Structures are given as structure tokens and as C-alpha cells.
Amino acid sequence: MSATITPAPASESLPRTAETPAARARELLPLLSAQASGHDEADSFVGENYDLLKGAGLVEAGVPRGLGGGGAGIRELAEMLRILAHGCSSTALAFSMHTHQVAVPAWRWEHQGAKPVEQLLRRVAAERIILLSSGGADWIAGSGEARRVEGGYRIYGTKTFSSGSPAGDLLMTGAVLREEEGDSVIHFAAPMKAPEVRVLDTWRALGMRGTGSNDVLIDGLFVADAQVSFKRRAGEWHPVFQIIATIAFPLIYAVYLGVAERARDMAIAAAKARRPGEDALLLAGRMENSLRAARLAHDWMLRAAERNAPGEESVNDVMTGRALLAEAAIRTVELAMELAGGAAFQRKAGIERLFRDVQGARFHPLQPLPQARYAGAMALGLPVARIF
Predict the structure, then answer these.
(1) What backbone phi and psi angles, to 5 degrees, belong to 219?
(2) Cβ contact 218:196 at 8 Å
(3) Which residues are within 8 A (CB) of 328 and not within 5 positions of it... i.e. 6 or more apart?
(4) ∠175-159-226 over CA atoms, to 5°?
(5) 239-380: which CATH architecture?
(6) Residue 68 class from Cβ within 10 Å (0-12 exposed, 13-18 middle, 19+ buried)?
(7) Per DSSP, what are the bridge partners of residue 198?
(8) What pLDDT score was predicted for residue 190?
(9) pLDDT band with cut points at 50, 70 and 90 for residue 179
(10) In the chain, where does DSSP find H-type helix?
(11) Whole-model pTM?
(12) Which of 197, 226, 361, 386 stands 20 to 30 A from 282 (CA)?
């Protein structure tokens, strides 16, 4: 199906009147909203919205001030993403992947004095480069293959769910190195403009259709020894991944909270346009309860991250919040569909798109079964290093 996408204004033409990332995100909502349904209809990437994000100074919002960025903390960044989701779910989710790839090294620089990440963060601030995540399919087990060659490695593999891929500059990823003593994973940044790196046009999905979460093919990319950021054992939690899990998921799931809030607002407006009966009161009340549960779960995730103590406990708290938020957000949008009535079943109403978009909350790590096993092992005092 085709749709006409009206180009957004150039980023340099947008005023920078708001001070906080959340306030600047709110200024973008009319522009994001105007494009959202067209991208959904056309299965097209929200590329022009990245110009808006850059123009609003949101790309570098999470870089520490000392490195040239906005210095926003995790709660501020989560609020920014939640608000962006009110305008366009796909833009918010794709941008959450860049945002957390900035927030994690920023946390390491500020709390661990990790000097190797400084150059990357300075580039984000100065050049507004876009960082990509290779997604949940490239999780603790790792994916792809690293072959040892003189001076480094040759990398082969396909990275799935690479949200924002058409706009990306660097793919933060890894590859599995087969060794006699056991498999390891090396981590590195793959330049998206390298001839050995190619975005495949594969993203055709139920929801979040504008995220550009295509497969990325890496075919023989050379990664020098000095370009490897760290090496870990495959299939086992590493301290860096505990940091990633603690920092990234409160940001990613801020998007799904925003989707649920937007669906709630639309359903309330639809119900008010009619004369609400007793059934509408019950549906509205249940919807409000579910949304409140999602907000409480998200605050729990943020509080776990704000302890600044990544580890097994913080991962357990964040992933418990992730499970509760996903369930409550999905239920909120389901109830919004019912409250809005039969009109919500039609695409033009907009709630149907949000119903599809919120389903993505099911699929990020830790998915329900491993999350429950992780929480159960923590409760029983059993090892969790290989539960993912």
C-alpha cells in the first residue's frame, strides 16, 4: 500500500526555544503526528524525523556536558522518549535505541571513569552521529562470526531488528569467536558506510512499521584489535551487559508507556464525544488502572537504574518492571479499543495503529519466560548467569 509522505522542515529551520529534552520533544509532536500514519501505511522509515531530532538537539541530549552534550540523566531521557511516542511510536522506539547506546557509555564515563568511551561520546555531541543497536536477537548468546586474522578479525553475520538502520552511522554490535577454551564474543562498532556492511530491506511487521528495523548484513568487515571495546564469554551475563540491561530498558519501555498513554487519551476523547453509559465507566476505570500500573512499573525501573549499582539485583528489578509494564501497557490499549468502540477498529481512528505498535513490548529481552526464571532463581538464591 502506498502513501504520500510530506517532507518535514529542515532541522536548521526549527526554533530551539525549549530548555529540557522533554520540552523540545513536545514541540515536535505536531510534526511527528502528521507523518506517523503515512509511514505506517507505506512501511516506510521515519527518516525525515531524524532531521527533526537533530535540529532539536535530542541526539546529543544524553552526552555529558563535559563532553559537549546536554547532560540529561536517565529519567529526563525516558521522559523525552515517552513524549515522542505520543507523536509517533516508530520514531520514539527507533530513537530509543540510539538514546540508550549513548546513555550506557555516558554512565560508564561518569561512574566508572571509562576513558575509551570518551571519543565516541564527543563524536555524538559534535557530529550528531546516530548509534544503532543490533537488537535483542544479538543478546547474551551473541550472533555472527569473528574469524581471527592478522591484526584483528573478519566479521560475518546478519544482525536482525536493527532499528533506525537507514539513518545509522555506527552499529554497536558483536560477533562470536570460536576458541578451544570456549566461545567468546567480541564487541565493536561497525561503520554503516563500510562496503562490507549493508542494510537489507526486510522490515515488514505487525506494528512499529516505521522503525526501519531491518536486517544488517556484515560480510567480511575487518575489525582491528584496537577497535574491540571488550571481550566476554558467550552465553553468560557480563558486567557490561548488566549495565546495559539496567540503563537501556527503562528508556526503551518509556516508549511503550507513551503509546499506552496516547491510546488512553484518544479513547477518552472518543467516549466523551458520546454520552457514556455504565459500561463505558467500567471500561474507562479499568483502563485507568492498567495505565497507572504501567506508570508505577516504569518508575520502579527508573528507580532501579538511579541506584547506580548495576548487577544481578538491578537487572532483576528492571526486568520485573519491564514484564509488568509490558502487560499493563498492552492491556491499556486493549481497553482503549473497547472504550472507543467500533470506530477504533478502523485505521483512520488511529487507535488501531497504537494497538499494533504496543505489541512490540512483548519481544524485547527479557521475554516473559526467561524473566520469570531469572526472578525465580534470584528468589531461591540460585545462579542467574546463564538465564537470559
Answers:
(1) -125, 85
(2) yes
(3) 260, 290, 291, 293, 294, 297
(4) 35
(5) Up-down Bundle (1.20)
(6) middle
(7) 217
(8) 98
(9) very high
(10) 21-42, 47-55, 74-87, 89-112, 118-127, 239-273, 278-306, 312-340, 351-358, 368-380
(11) 0.94
(12) 361
Average pLDDT, the chain: 95
Q: Which three cell numbers stand for residue 261?
A: 498513554
φ/ψ (deg, to 5) at 126 = -80, -40
Grid cell 507523536 in the structure block, residue: 87
Q: Is the peptide bond before 335 cis (omega within 30 degrees of 0)?
A: no
- pLDDT given at position 14: 44
What DSSP element (H or E) covers 152? strand 152-162
Q: For Cα atoms 209, 54, 256, give the angle at the middle one, nearest 5 degrees.
A: 40
Is domain 136-233 in CATH 2.40.110.10, yes or no? yes
Q: What is the structure's pLDDT at 16?
A: 52
pLDDT of residue 17: 56
At 40-58, the pLDDT tens digits run 999 999 999 999 999 999 9
The answer to whether 39 and 5 have CB atoms below 8 angstroms apart is yes
- Cα 69 to chain center, whole Å? 20
Please give the radius of gyration of the chain, using alpha carbons only, rounded to the nearest integer: 21
Distances (CA, A) of 352 to 37, 210, 326: 11, 15, 18
Compute the C-alpha angle 268/260/282, nearest 5°: 45
Separation CA 233–CA 225 (nearest Å): 17
CATH of 11-129, one of 3.40.50.2000, 1.10.540.10, 2.60.120.10, 3.90.226.10: 1.10.540.10
Question: Which is nearest to 91 in space by CA: 48, 129, 42?
Answer: 48
pLDDT exceeds cutoff 60 at 357: yes
Write out pLDDT tens, residues 214-254: 999 999 999 999 999 999 999 999 999 999 999 999 999 99
- The full set of domain ranges for the chain reads 11-129, 136-233, 239-380
Locus of grid cell 571513569:
113
In the DSSP assignment, the letter for residue 15 is -
Contact 32, 6 (CB under 8 A): no
* Three cell numbers, residue 290: 492498567
Q: What percent of the chain has pLDDT over 90?
A: 93
**Distance of alpha carbon 150 from the chain centroid:** 36
**Letter for the amino acid at 282?**
L
Residue 275 has a pLDDT of 87
